[in-house]
Recover the amino acids of this structure.
């Protein structure tokens, strides 16, 4: 925490108004069982909380935990209204039923940095309704006025008589008096918060430290077989024929069979399955993508960028203004395919018993996985049960719309009487996974007599994430993928009420959906901002340089009508010491973005050697995420998101030659090392706005801020990424 900025002063009126709007202009209902279950089950239960007779309180978590702190913030919300220690709450992953679907996505999906915002009211309401039932039960059982009762540390108290009762002891009274959850309930005034807004350690942290936490890859079931898949060398390739005789002769090997993904070997251990897989002799059909290459993508996309695209926004007259301008700045920015590189590779266990299928999988997207599996097997969706453990990172990879790694496990388990676990090797994850799509952005701009940006013309070219998927109707607007234009538009576009915070008088943005290929695109942490942020923020710096205006000052002027971002930038200027000169070989850069309503800005300091080696010495990050439910968690997410984005811009690159991915593991697809991590200062602005997420926010500005800092230090612009491809090596 920094300088007390995270201390939050919240007015009740403002907070209620804000949270009532629920930031997404979408209802966020709290559903409860028709009755409060007690008696026979020995527990009282609503959709999100269960209290057992032994006083164990369990929260049904409807969001996934993959390092995002979801379990911590949700347990804090419940505990605040239920009046218990959040660390005393047990957690269960909620079942894949509609009552647990995200109110924003209308699916069981953890994504988009919306967990905190979308659960803030439901979890608190669940706790408050359960507490109201317990108070009602005590009032009736003890025959005392309700107003004389209070709660503390998981017990109801009657101070006048000294009587108190743990919550679990009141279950019988709830059953006896047939007490039901109230229709409405008052939530605690923010001035009364004991837990929310205070720094809290990670709920699942101790288990991760002592090794007791169970991830998907850790699960062992009786009789389980392990599968290793030989995959085609080219995306979209298929098996013509295979010889498994050598593999089947090896100890512990049970079977080898062709599936859609390739050839799977089943054995009594993953090690044995891997070794046997390497003995397979397979004839591959390389398919339609045998000649695909990254360089051809770049060439084709550059050509498309030179042609008119679908019109996303046309404010003023950008084309006419640019045509009349004496001096036009032009730049083309190119961003590569990126792998997710999760530390826990993809894995899934499947068991098929008659017309039922049970899955154990670290997944962000339970309802989609359930839907895809039911369709694949031809069984009712409700017959697919998904158990969700902790996940060792995701960054979007575990929200696959194709449910690829899950379906592989199901297909491998077909015909088997025992569970089957499929584990991807690191090489499989890098070579055969789904990727952040490759993008090319062509920009033209001009400045007026005062040096301010006057006209802006941007053409974005890349493969759509949503085109042709079930999300096409929602996320494709006039044929354009809204994620391809994240943060590029000055006006709302599609389902998102936010865009860039900058106001340029003449602003035109066009888009091309690149032809679909066998390379499957998938959301990468911060989605479209991973490429739009680089193009927009770096080109803005180019215009600042052209106009002779300090880059941060330019952003302050352009956001004068956006008070939240303007405040973020003002605080950033102060906290980073922007006007303090740096020595030779050093540079400072800035970038700012809005992701999911949360404005975030970063100032980066670098030191660059003559040979291009550089260090990122310091990053100052200012974020406005509304009410900070867990300031310590906000800091952690900012630091983690920043580290992920820094590694991606420094050396992230998937290169395809003749249809084959050239990278395979961390030696040639590196991730950020501890020695490369900069000093990070996080400043959380106090706010009475409703909470918004921070899981992806810090990933968005770090790439352009570093590129801008390198220009400030060396005078060299980078327009093709990663930085390592242009002679800048992070050391």
């Amino acid at each position: 925490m920094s300088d007390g900025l995270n201390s939050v002063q919240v007015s009740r009126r403002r907070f209620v108004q804000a949270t009532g709007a629920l930031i997404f202009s979408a209802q966020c209902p709290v559903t409860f069982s028709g009755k409060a279950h007690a008696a026979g089950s020995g527990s009282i239960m609503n959709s999100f909380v269960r209290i057992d007779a032994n006083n164990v309180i369990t929260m049904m978590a409807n969001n996934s935990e993959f390092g995002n702190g979801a379990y911590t913030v949700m347990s804090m919300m419940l505990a605040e209204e239920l009046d218990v220690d959040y660390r005393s709450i047990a957690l269960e992953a909620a079942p894949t039923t509609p009552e647990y679907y995200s109110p924003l996505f209308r699916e069981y999906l953890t994504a988009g940095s919306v967990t905190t915002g979308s659960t803030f009211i439901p979890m608190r309401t669940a706790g408050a309704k359960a507490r109201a039932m317990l108070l009602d039960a005590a009032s009736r059982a003890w025959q005392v006025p309700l107003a004389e009762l209070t709660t503390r540390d998981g017990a109801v108290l009657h101070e006048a008589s000294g009587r108190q009762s743990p919550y679990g002891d009141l279950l019988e009274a709830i059953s006896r008096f047939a007490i039901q959850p109230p229709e409405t309930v008052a939530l605690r005034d923010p001035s009364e918060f004991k837990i929310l807004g205070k720094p809290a350690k990670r709920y699942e942290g101790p288990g991760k430290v002592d090794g007791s936490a169970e991830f998907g890859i850790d699960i062992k079931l009786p009789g389980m077989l392990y599968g290793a898949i030989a995959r085609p060398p080219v995306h979209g390739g298929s098996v013509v024929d295979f010889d498994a005789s050598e593999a089947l002769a090896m100890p512990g090997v049970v079977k080898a069979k062709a599936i859609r993904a390739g050839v799977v070997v089943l054995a009594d251990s993953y090690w044995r399955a891997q070794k046997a897989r390497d003995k397979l002799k397979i004839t591959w059909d390389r398919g339609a993508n045998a000649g695909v290459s990254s360089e051809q993508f770049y060439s084709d996309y550059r050509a498309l960028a030179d042609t008119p695209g679908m019109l996303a926004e046309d404010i003023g007259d950008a084309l006419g203004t640019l045509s009349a301008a004496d001096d036009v700045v032009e730049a083309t920015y190119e961003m590569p395919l990126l792998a997710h590189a999760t530390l826990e590779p993809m894995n899934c266990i499947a068991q098929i018993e008659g017309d039922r299928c049970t899955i154990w999988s670290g997944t962000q997207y339970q309802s989609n996985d359930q839907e895809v599996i039911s369709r694949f097997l031809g069984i009712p969706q409700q017959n697919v049960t998904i158990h969700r453990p902790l996940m060792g990172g995701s960054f979007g990879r575990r929200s696959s719309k194709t449910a690829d790694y899950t379906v592989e496990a199901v297909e491998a388990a077909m015909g088997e009487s025992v569970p089957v676990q499929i584990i991807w090797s690191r090489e499989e994850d890098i070579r055969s996974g789904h990727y952040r799509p490759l993008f090319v952005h062509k920009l033209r701009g001009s400045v007026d007599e005062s040096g301010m940006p006057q006209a802006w013309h941007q053409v974005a070219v890349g493969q759509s994430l949503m085109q042709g998927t079930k999300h096409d109707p929602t996320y494709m607007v006039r044929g354009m993928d809204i994620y391809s234009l994240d943060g590029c538009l000055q006006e709302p576009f599609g389902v998102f009420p936010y865009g860039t915070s900058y106001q340029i008088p003449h602003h035109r943005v066009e888009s091309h959906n690149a032809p679909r290929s066998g390379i499957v695109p998938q959301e990468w942490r911060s989605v479209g901002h991973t490429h739009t942020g680089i193009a927009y923020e770096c080109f803005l710096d180019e215009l600042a340089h052209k106009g002779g205006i300090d880059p941060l000052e330019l952003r302050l002027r352009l956001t004068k009508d956006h008070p939240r971002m303007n405040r973020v930038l003002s605080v950033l200027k102060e906290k980073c010491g922007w006007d303090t000169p740096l020595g030779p070989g050093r540079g400072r850069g800035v970038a700012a973005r809005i992701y999911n309503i949360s404005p975030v800005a970063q100032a980066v300091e670098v030191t660059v050697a003559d040979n291009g080696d550089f260090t990122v010495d310091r990053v100052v990050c200012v974020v406005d995420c509304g009410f900070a439910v867990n300031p310590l968690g906000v800091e952690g997410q900012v630091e983690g998101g920043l580290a992920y984005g820094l590694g991606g811009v420094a050396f992230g690159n998937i290169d395809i030659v003749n249809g084959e991915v050239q990278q395979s593991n961390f030696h040639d697809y590196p991730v950020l090392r501890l020695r490369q991590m900069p000093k990070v200062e996080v400043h959380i602005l106090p706010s009475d706005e409703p909470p918004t997420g921070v899981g992806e926010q810090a990933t968005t500005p770090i790439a352009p801020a570093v590129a801008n800092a390198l220009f400030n230090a060396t005078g060299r612009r980078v327009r093709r990424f990663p930085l390592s491809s242009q002679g800048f090596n992070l050391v």
About this structure: The chain has a mean pLDDT of 92. The chain has three domains: 31-207, 223-287+358-369+390-428, 308-338+435-730. The first helix runs from residue 12 to 21.
